[in-house]
Amino acid sequence: MRIGDAAAAAGTTPRALRFYEQRGLLPPPARSASGQREYGPGEVARVQVIRRLLAAGLTVEDLASRARRLDGLFADPPLRCSGDPGPETFAPVITARLAALDEEIARLTALRARLAQHVATGGADVLGEVG
Fold it and tell me: Which Gene3D superfamilies does this one have (predicted)?
């Protein structure tokens, strides 16, 4: 199928498919005689997995670091993500992403506390410590 049909089947856009290809998440597809990209069900399944992983909070960079492992996630039957900390598994990537989220939550919690204090004091501490 052509890029527009593949994108629609995967629930995304042709631009996203080209972006995933450029970032190494999607292997370069076969080309028709006229040079148009041709996708099959495997590529559509891979894009669906990519979209689910991105929606779960992983980044494009996270996925690119384990692009070879993506095929196993849409295999039949799919491989399971294990807690195995091996260097080629997703476990280290997920652990790092969790740590980054924890840092961001701590930063936002501190920001919220400062804003709440600002409201509670009627803005008297507006020039206080920022950062």
Answer: 1.10.1660.10
3-state secondary structure of 29: coil
**Cα–Cα distance, 110 to 112 (Å, whole number):** 5
pTM recorded for the entire structure: 0.73
Q: Using one digit for the tens of pLDDT, what is the confidence trace for 5-59?
A: 999 999 999 999 999 999 999 999 999 999 999 999 999 999 999 999 999 999 9
Q: What element of type H or E holds 38?
A: strand 37-38
DSSP state of 1: -
DSSP state of 68: G
Helical axes 3-10 vs 41-55, angle rounded to 10°? 50
Distances (CA, A) of 112 to 15, 18, 100, 122, 123: 37, 39, 18, 15, 14
Contact 13, 6 (CB under 8 A): no
Q: H or E stretch including 26?
A: none
Q: From residue 79, how far is each of 70, 74, 75 by CA, in Å? A: 10, 8, 7
